[in-house]
Amino acid sequence: MPDKTLRIHRAAGRSSVNRRPVMLAIAGDSAAGKTTLTAGLVEALGPERCVSLCTDDYHRYDRAERQSLPFTALHPDCNHLAIMEQHLQLLASGQPVLKPVYDHSIGRLSHTELLEPADFVIVEGLFPLYSKLARACFDVTVFLDPHEQTRRAWKVERDARERGYTAEQVLGELDLREPESAAYIRPQRQHADIVVRFAPVQGRDDPSVPLSAELLLRPTIRHPDLSEVMQPGVHRAMHLELERDTDGRPVDSLHVHGYVDAEESIAVEKAIWASIGEPERCAPECLGGIGGGERSEPLAITQLLLLHHLIEAGR
Amino acid sequence: MPDKTLRIHRAAGRSSVNRRPVMLAIAGDSAAGKTTLTAGLVEALGPERCVSLCTDDYHRYDRAERQSLPFTALHPDCNHLAIMEQHLQLLASGQPVLKPVYDHSIGRLSHTELLEPADFVIVEGLFPLYSKLARACFDVTVFLDPHEQTRRAWKVERDARERGYTAEQVLGELDLREPESAAYIRPQRQHADIVVRFAPVQGRDDPSVPLSAELLLRPTIRHPDLSEVMQPGVHRAMHLELERDTDGRPVDSLHVHGYVDAEESIAVEKAIWASIGEPERCAPECLGGIGGGERSEPLAITQLLLLHHLIEAGR
């Protein structure tokens, strides 16, 4: 149980020379929105206080090498997971790592990079919650679980724009990856403190209506008290429900509809800040950005909730 | 001192002789039923596989010394909590400890004792979940939270029988301890995976009806799937409900009424064993013993659930 040793060491406190950073994991399948979610958090905290790491950098093979292999990038054997675990442990104990860098635009491992832990370290990728030892490194864990049709559309658009694929190639790759996604990526969902699901609002699939977010808040960490601001009838576009997750476990489900208006958002944002003792503060303006100057209010609320957890864990 | 941490780890090694035990915490106030719960588990697993430790042994002062102190045994300053934490870490990493022994019958620290960790280590007492470091040592955590009138009656009876107090002395001591119980003991409840509440069945306070148990099962660990055996209407004396805990957190609440009959018990016991892959097994007969040859079915179910978690964590 090396995970327990690590938990003991991390719990032993921050009095060491190497101050231990707060670690956030954002796991999810390809094009689930991990980078967008991460970018807003890094900008809100400031790059001098918050660094991020993508576990795709631990790919064992280049894109060309993968062509002849019997598995995709979603297979554990296609990644240096033992080194990823080692680097997560080093970062969690306040030490720097020299890490590889995978360049998605050319599909190659290009160089190495020194990463020194700041106050906050965000680790996003396919595998941050894959093993018990990796999970023991984190203070807060998130799994991004968007509606599958939404994710496929995001992946086609992003891979065509940034990685030089055709739509047919991306859809073919998605089908090829599906069994490995089911076997290795999606099971990480059960280990997340927060599961985030972006999806079209049911019955309102007009593409001009922004996507909604459903946040499953597991009581594995202490969430801000939203019961007052979420009283039935008080807010139309956000509500909190006691539910069972797909595996039967009790969970709080926070629904944030895409058509939420600014007044409602601000009330919830204030409640979240109040829960960390800063009732007058408003969300940083950088939250909610989805590229091209567009903004998603459900994404902003999601990011604010994660900021809350990062700040609380750092106290 | 990351260098020292590393040296210690390398010296300890993965394949070391010190196999790390599964650790269970049972926290709760005085006379909450911790020893009774523990005794059945140790008997079921066998003393060669399971040892127990009481954190009362870390009292800093004898009963006589405490008379002149401005706090009771429930105050952290009245206990060697840093040493308790150190011993928990040593045990969690598979190492033996030489621990003090507090003899309740005479109210004195009497001698020391070598405790070598077996496959399972049960730590019961006032403080096992008090600090983050202590909590990091455990695989499964329990808080005993009996109905307060029940606990007071248990304490009067036990302290008069075993510790030479009069009923008046015990009731006076309970009043004296109340603020420290509220400040230091009861807050540990929030950190338990399972909260166990023994209480008279409401509206059936005939003392001949055995106490019921309410088990709050937090999704911080994976509980056995009882949804099938607990379908509404199938069982009268046991039911599982999705609830909010007193602090608002989502939780499963398993009610086991004191008048549960053997047939119902056996169905639930089989479901629990089935969830660890032994569907034909029945509960060991030693479970449920409450002294004097008496037996409590709700206690037996509680102990069986904990056995499930110990065995699962050891796999």
Automatic annotation (TrEMBL), chains A, B:
Going by the UniProt record, its keywords in alphabetical order are:
ATP-binding, Calvin cycle, Kinase, Nucleotide-binding, Photosynthesis, Transferase
Under Gene3D superfamilies, the record lists:
P-loop containing nucleotide triphosphate hydrolases (3.40.50.300)
A molecular function (GO) held by this record is: ATP binding
Q: Where is the signal peptide?
A: none
Q: Which domain of life is it from?
A: Bacteria
Q: Which BP terms in the Gene Ontology apply to this protein?
A: reductive pentose-phosphate cycle
PROSITE patterns associated with the record: PHOSPHORIBULOKINASE
InterPro entries, from UniProt?
A: P-loop_NTPase, PRK, PRK/URK
This entry's Enzyme Commission designation comes to 2.7.1.19
What name does this protein carry?
Phosphoribulokinase
Which species is listed as the source? Pseudonocardia sulfidoxydans NBRC 16205
Q: What is the lineage of its organism?
A: Bacteria, Bacillati, Actinomycetota, Actinomycetes, Pseudonocardiales
